[in-house]
Amino acid sequence: MAGGSLTAGGAVPAQAQLFPEQVTSALGLPGVLGEVVGALIAAFLIGNVMLAFTGVAGPWAKRKITAAFTDRIAVDRIGPFGLLIIPAASVQLLAKELIIPEGATRPAYDLAPIVLPASALLGFSVIPMGRLGPLNLQLADPETGFVLVFAFASIASVSLVMAGYASNNKYSLLGGLRAVAQNLAYEIPLIVTAMSVVVFAGTLQTSGIVSAQQEALVTIAGITIPAWYAFVNPFAFGLFVVANMAEIGRNPFDIPEAPTEIVAGYQTEYSSAYFVLFYLGEFLHVFLGGAILTVAFLGGASGPGPESIGFVWFVVKVWAFFLFTQWCRSALPRVRIDQLIEIGWKGMLVLSFANLLLTAVLVGVIV
Predict the structure, then answer these.
(1) Which residues span the membrane (predicted)?
(2) What is the pLDDT of residue 231?
(3) Higher confidence at residue 320 or residue 89?
(4) Count of domains forming the chain
(5) 3-class SS of residue 219
(6) What's the CA gap between 366 and 363, in Å, rounded?
């Protein structure tokens, strides 16, 4: 960051219009109807951006990154850089026959693959993604937005349980039960660690948390280190990353699907469009996890340069987290279910409460 000014790309002044309001103003639609139409259009645009990220990440980026880590080539013959694998894989998966297992509990079986991606998309509704030119890319900014994003994200475990129970398959049921155990063991440390961020920021509003990280922490040899909470409290940042990885089910915590143990876990009996929805939901939650991490610890959309390119920095940070998850997938072995539970309850839980207590004491002394 030498030679550049750090701008609050994610900081949203109280009087600034949110994205739905900007769309409504641009369309010139009056009254409640205009607000509803503006909100729907804004949500549609933001949702499609996230779906586009997922479309690139799943069929193409995941393979290319894993191949780079394991000294392989991956897809390179279908279009330039293998990019046409994205539509090819989509057509391939959607063209497969949708097989419903005998004895499946419906409509729970049908709803499970819809709930997973929907919960992630709901989470993005309160994430401040910064500015892109004149556009302020945030759908809503409630005073309890930080709580809402965790509430929306936690719905994912309900989907996995529904899929596991409704599939009438013992491997699926085991995957669903593992998802519940993992969620209980790691969501508490995740939220407790996030509360240490709230103690620092003094607000539950996501834009307020980003704004609180815009000051310079220290300047060394002309290089300005921002007051991002990852630098202010690296211990909490480390705890949050580990708990976040468990929450989104990435290596070494991909226990609910564990292919070498329980076939494919909760999604064993799903095919065609239903499998695509699960696959979509899995990657949407990876990006949502990266977005939450960015807001809580990495200064949101802030970065060198003008405020109008804040969204670019937001995308860079979220994709950096995705790259980290793929590195873990290639480098770290999966832990056993008993090890996962022990790490969560005996390690993460104790450390997260210790971090919260220490943070509260430090803030109390400083303030």
Answers:
(1) 40-61, 114-133, 145-166, 186-204, 216-243, 276-298, 310-327, 347-366
(2) 92
(3) 320
(4) 1
(5) strand
(6) 5
Its sign, for the CA torsion 156, 236, 351, 146, is negative
Q: Please give the residue range of the domain that contains residue 142.
A: 6-16+103-366
C-alpha–C-alpha distance, residues 162 and 143, integer Å = 31
- Average pLDDT for the chain: 86
| Torsion-angle region of 102 (φ positive above 0: left; ψ -120 to 50: alpha; else: beta) | beta
Whether 1 is covered by a domain: the verdict is no
- Confidence band, pLDDT 50/70/90 cuts, at residue 320: very high
| 235-243: average pLDDT | 94
Residue 55 inside a domain? The answer is: no
Instruction: Show Cβ contacts of residue 7 under 8 Å, excluding neighbours closer than 6 positions.
Output: 302, 303, 304, 305, 306, 307, 310
Token pair 């509360």 is found at 195
Answer whether 0.85 is exceeded by the pTM.
yes
Residue 322's pLDDT band (cuts 50, 70, 90): very high
Section 217-235 average pLDDT: 86
Long-range CB pairs of 270-274 (<8 Å, 24+ gap) are 270/113, 270/163, 270/167, 271/96, 271/97, 271/98, 271/99, 272/93, 272/94, 272/95, 272/96, 272/97, 272/98, 272/99, 273/93, 273/94, 273/98, 274/98, 274/110, 274/113
On the CB side of 99, CA atoms within 13 Å amount to 10
**CA separation (Å) from 254 to 39, 135, 250, 323?**
35, 37, 5, 16
Residue 224 lies in a domain: yes
Where does residue 72 fall: left (phi above 0), alpha (psi -120 to 50 degrees), or beta otherwise? Answer: beta
Which residue's structure tokens are 């922490």?
Answer: 217
Q: Which amino acid is at 13?
A: P
306 to each of 16, 223, 312, how far by Cα in Å?
17, 18, 11
